[in-house]
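re the bet — no i am not wrong, look at it urself. input seq straight from the record:
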Amino acid sequence: MRNLGVFIGRRLLITVPMLLIVSILTFVILRMLPSDPVAMIVGINRTPERVEFVTAQLGLDKPLVEQFVIWMGNVLQGDLGTAWHTGQAVTTDLAARIPASVELAFLALLIGVPGGVATGVIAARYRDRFADFGLRFSSLLAIATPEFLFGIFAIWLFFAVLNWAPAPLGRIEFGISPPEAITGLYIVDSVLTRNTEALVSSLRSIALPAISLGVILAGGFQRFTRATMVESLSSDAVLSSRGHGLPNRLVFYKYSLKQALLVVVPVFGIVVAYAIGGLVAVERIFSWPGVGRYALEAVSRADLNAVQGFILFSVVLYVALNLFVDIVQAIIDPRIEYR
């Protein structure tokens, strides 16, 4: 247990310079872009005095290094600045939108991870047979399809043609009041407050965006699970088990699958990072009021504080999830040393 604490401490120490480097790169790159936030704010009422005033308000009249030092000092105090396109603190904006994104991402992962692992196991079990070819083709199709294209197709089929899904206008159907806010998660809050109408509407509204993102995530997990399963079936441990006369089904599900899952665990962090990126497109298509849509709106309006806040939030989340995955893998896989 002591070694595990040292292991976690070392991982945390690595994240500090990583976050600093990402912060510096984000800050510099955003200011190298051709977009002009001052012009976006001033608009048609452009006068030299107004331009000078807005430039000073944004702190863009100072040297780049001084701007970064001021921004980083505020970040360390929990202040990500003010988003000019909403007029609110970036932390306030993110806090209001994080529950929507968490709810969507969680359901997408709930669809993508078990679905991808299960179909990957089936593909490996029936390697080079019809089921394997069919599943490999479907996974390749899912990976190759952009999130926005899959979302548009889902809206056209299930809303416009079949009329099975509600209009893609957010987290709950028009005319139905959201549940009383407890956690910010509509599904959870509907259950806690026993609001059946809001629960059904929330599930109907989140179904298409969650499936759109979940199917694509499942495609990646399926291919990786199949590859690790096929490799595991050729390992010395599995071949030795078969040589001792153990049934193929027992060898496959008890030994080979266990080895494959140990390799699949580290990929979870990468998949979550991909899901965060996919949220931007999915939330835009389905008018989902989450952080992905907020980031897209901030980029289109050259809102530097909002974009920097979103990127910093995403990086911290990604680092935290990968640290969690490293810890889980170190605990469940005895081959990993705490170093």
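see?? The first helix runs from residue 2 to 32. told u. also The first strand starts at residue 82 and ends at 83. so pay up
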